[in-house]
Specification:
Shape of chain A: elongated
Number of strands of chain A: 0
Helix content of chain A: 55-70%
Number of domains of chain A: 2
Oligomer: homotetramer
Strand content of chain A: under 5%
Distance between the termini of chain A: 65 Å
Number of helices of chain A: 11
Radius of gyration of chain A: 23 Å
Amino acid sequence: MAARPKRARSVRPAKAGGHRRRRNGEGTPDRREAILAAALDEFSLRGFAAARLDDVARRAGVAKGTIYLYFRDKEALFQELVRSVIGPLIERFEASAEIDLPARVVAERIVEMFVREIYGTRRKDVIRLIIAEGPRFPKIAEFYYREVISRVIAAVRGLLRRAAERGEIPAEALARFPQLLVAPGLVAIVWHGLFDRFEPLDVAALMRAHLDLLFGERRTG
Amino acid sequence: MAARPKRARSVRPAKAGGHRRRRNGEGTPDRREAILAAALDEFSLRGFAAARLDDVARRAGVAKGTIYLYFRDKEALFQELVRSVIGPLIERFEASAEIDLPARVVAERIVEMFVREIYGTRRKDVIRLIIAEGPRFPKIAEFYYREVISRVIAAVRGLLRRAAERGEIPAEALARFPQLLVAPGLVAIVWHGLFDRFEPLDVAALMRAHLDLLFGERRTG
Amino acid sequence: MAARPKRARSVRPAKAGGHRRRRNGEGTPDRREAILAAALDEFSLRGFAAARLDDVARRAGVAKGTIYLYFRDKEALFQELVRSVIGPLIERFEASAEIDLPARVVAERIVEMFVREIYGTRRKDVIRLIIAEGPRFPKIAEFYYREVISRVIAAVRGLLRRAAERGEIPAEALARFPQLLVAPGLVAIVWHGLFDRFEPLDVAALMRAHLDLLFGERRTG
Amino acid sequence: MAARPKRARSVRPAKAGGHRRRRNGEGTPDRREAILAAALDEFSLRGFAAARLDDVARRAGVAKGTIYLYFRDKEALFQELVRSVIGPLIERFEASAEIDLPARVVAERIVEMFVREIYGTRRKDVIRLIIAEGPRFPKIAEFYYREVISRVIAAVRGLLRRAAERGEIPAEALARFPQLLVAPGLVAIVWHGLFDRFEPLDVAALMRAHLDLLFGERRTG
DNA sequence: GATGAATGAGGGTTCATTCAT
DNA sequence: TATGAATGAACCCTCATTCAT
């Protein structure tokens, strides 16, 4: 406690407080964003429990206390990280699925969007985090289910059921289990985190092969 | 650990009287097994970093120090846990895949074995652990890749390539990416950990639907 | 501060919008007074170490930095608080004691002044603070001794010795230990802070009873 | 977190854990008592909030973590400190007050016991702590009221009322406010903490003078 | 072997203090 | 003057690890 009546403030007795480290002209000094980005790095690297806010702060270029100006505690930081990354994704996904085109075309678009917007970005790391930490963070799991999974499932299911009625896809199996459409995406994310250094995975090809299996071949690279 | 998702301040009674002695005279010989089982429980419940060896010991009915008689440290305990659970699985899987039956039949057997031997047992929790903690434990990831993934992939790939040559499956997409065969299994495991309480998943039906999509319908339950 | 006796995690809204602007145009001129008043509230409520300048500032309706325009640091704020409240009291007390009336009359006046000017005001809280924090603030204790205690003691002692010589009081015990005259006042202050909610204390009656014991009965309410 | 997958445990990578510092043959290694004694020292010196458990541990000759083997947290340590010191006092006090002797004799015994058992021991520091910290620790205040104050008050009141009935004391003022009997004791404790270095107080003489005032002179030293 | 009390480094969180605006 | 975002030292508490018994 800095306020304890004297006791010689260990070192630097008269300079304990805060310099604003005005980092050179960078434009927005948006600390909140910087902290979230750093948190994603550290949480991805070590997992929630083992990540240190000290490292988050250093990586973000702020002092440790600064984190607490923007987030109530470590857990809130984690939750807001997930929300901020996942939130914006939702509308886009739903929009894509609602277009009334042939199922295969829509499926291709969804897959392509997955590869571009998730697998190709830091969002894949957030999804990895959700998979890894979700069981210990019921709120995160619930948020993710409510805001993402259930909506995507509903959208895809509607799309596929119509396609099945039009006979575009062999059975309505896919409509019952829309998870099957994105299952390889999940595999890709998990594979990336665990095995890529032993055997890299061509995700685009994987997803194309998957679509070929579901809808019958078309033209493959 | 402040980061553990909150837990009712475990009321350590200030002089920890309670010491759970084990049942019979000189103890079950397999303390090692008991510790591994307890470790699986605790690691599953909290994740590696947040699990406490104190809880593992209590759950196993041994003293904390005893763990160190059998395992070098917490990390070694985790690694051996994975090994001990995953190891025995391998031969069986390979055996199944080598039988030279029609691809669909073999695929069905593999899927059924997955449901019975993995999804239906604690092994699914170990796989969840590998997914969650693997990136922080390169040795675990490598072991799992070397001893399980690469072998299963090779076996399945051989099987499917032969089937594709015989025209039993439409394309060789599956042979290129055998991951596609088990992708729904992975989804099921992840789903179970995160979303089952919102929307339970009928894994057997999911896997059957998946096979129907891959091989064309046949007879569905 | 983990040591503060628990307080519902003050819900800092992560971007602390609310900033209580003061009422009129360019502000009440006596920010200093406002800060001192707020400091008395907070120090009384939590004690010196656990009080937060943040709360003092909020209560005073100023920014945190403003405190440092008027006081060197937290300790100086505390010292000046004590001075500003105790200082004005002194002359009055001395004046009362110097009047050359019968001892009992003077004692009654002193007691009455204590009840009215100390026990009935926030000054009692300052005295409580001195009692509680004094040992850690030698300067405060010294100031209080030099400016208050020693003077009051001297005044009361002179008064009583004269009274004893005139035979108005049975012995010179009181003159040797003028503390005995105010001891019940101290008890009242301490009692108020600790036990009033269990058993309220009628301070006026207590003081009257005390005088009756010292000087022999007269007329009691 | 010591368990974080590697990161070179800063210094002494293989010797992080616990040596039992078996202090030379001392008899009881009663750590609990040592910690309580050290806590009394530190809390007295700095107050509850500003005291550091680090210092308590050092003073007790144990490691910081050891404190938590015996006490749930800092607050529990404080509460148990008060209880352990105050508790044993109660019966003795009650016993003394119940003897049916002339009031003055009993009062003298009580006063003498106060001087010997409280003022002459560390218990006076605990009472100072209660006065200083009680308002922030309602449980402490309640415990102290329930277990000490209310009982002592009741005992003294009974004693004095009987004495008043026998005409031994002039009025029943004292029976109404037994606090008046011990008020100088409180003054002595407070004085000791604050002003002894400026003007030492002869407590025994103070208490004797007090009794003389209450009961009429007898023989004074 | 088995125990569990003891250790002490480590990390989340707080808050007095500073200073650019 | 006044502000309040930023700082970082400090401190409570946890828990992997050790070792005398």
